[in-house]
Amino acid sequence: MDFLQKRNDALNVNPNMVNGQSSDIAITVRGSDWYWAVCAVMTMATFVFLGLGVTKPRQHRVFHYITAAITMVAAIAYFSMASNLGWTPIDVEFQRNDPEVRGINREIFYVRYIDWFITTPLLLLDLMLTAAMPWPTILFIILVDEVMIVTGLVGALVRSSYKWGYFVFGCAALAYVVWVLVWEGRRHANVLGRDVGKAFTLCGSLTTFLWILYPVAWGICEGGNIISPDSEAVFYGILDLLAKPVFGALLIWGHRGIDPARLGLYIHDYDEKDPAVKDKVGAPGPNVHPNSNNGVATNGQTAETV
């Protein structure tokens, strides 16, 4: 009956060794199992969001596609971490006596930051489009968000106390993002109607609360080496599950009765069911008289072209 037993061989196939250097503080099979579970949820959520999008007209799928892209990228990142890939050993600043975090270097998953570099701008795009924010504001907040992620990654890869300088830069960037979500974005959304304001407030509040917890996780994981990589996996995993699949479900539910055109998103379809496309296809050319038949034979006679 051995063939019925499920076994996670990721740590055996991909041991704690990168470029000839091992990691003293690394995930165990329990951490890998948790990463696999989160990967499965992210994958399932991707197909659910895409499936829900198919039930909508193509012009109304923009939020489904953005949200599905978020969980799709996250699924790949969690696949990598569950496989014990996408990490590098970094010497810790604080060496602890706790057996779970005892050692010289710690496993730092840089693939997590690649995930965030791609998905957090998409999360903000979901929210900013919901609030119909001006494009200059959208572009700038995405830039600030990417600064936040990059400084977090650089800080995690620094062994000395200088890592906390990058931590401060990242927190400053986060403060700006939170301000836009709590103040500017909420005001814009409320002007567009009660349903839009409710959708933005619900998803924006969830995002704000969760994103404030990420620096806490960073401080006790990559920064302070206080909790084990397995506990780190659980902490970040719960945050990501709430910030991505749960956020996505709430966002799509909130948009169920909102026409993207109300948000300034005028998206045209490519078939003639779209009035804009239909009118364009049926409109006469610049050199054709409106009353002409474009040279098409009618009742056995050829119409004249003016």
Provide a quick synopsis of the model.
By secondary structure, this protein is mostly helical. Helix content is 61%, strand content 6%.
List keywords for this structure.
306 residues, mainly alpha, Rhopdopsin 7-helix transmembrane proteins, two-stranded antiparallel sheet, 9 helices, 6 strands, 61% helix, globular
Describe this protein's structure.
With 306 residues, the chain is mostly helical. The chain has one domain (21-263): Rhopdopsin 7-helix transmembrane proteins (Up-down Bundle), CATH 1.20.1070. 61% of the residues lie in helices and 6% in strands. It has 9 helices and 6 strands. The strands form 3 sheets. Strands 1-2 form a two-stranded antiparallel ribbon. A hairpin with a 2-residue loop joins strand 5 (297-298) and strand 6 (301-302).
Helix content: 55-70%
| Uncertain regions spanning at least 5 consecutive residues | 285-306
Number of strands: 6
CATH 2nd-level architecture = Up-down Bundle
- The CATH class label is Mainly Alpha
Strand fraction:
5-15%
Q: What is the average per-residue confidence, as pLDDT, rounded to a whole number? A: 88
Overall spatial form: globular
CATH superfamily descriptor = Rhodopsin 7-helix transmembrane proteins
**Major β-sheet annotation:** 2 strands, antiparallel
Biggest sheet strand line-up: 1-2
What name is given to the CATH topology?
A: Rhopdopsin 7-helix transmembrane proteins
**Computed CA radius of gyration, to the nearest angstrom:** 26 Å
Total count of domains? 1
- Structural class category: mainly alpha
Helical stretch tally: 9
| Helix and strand sequence | HEEHHEEHHHHHHEE
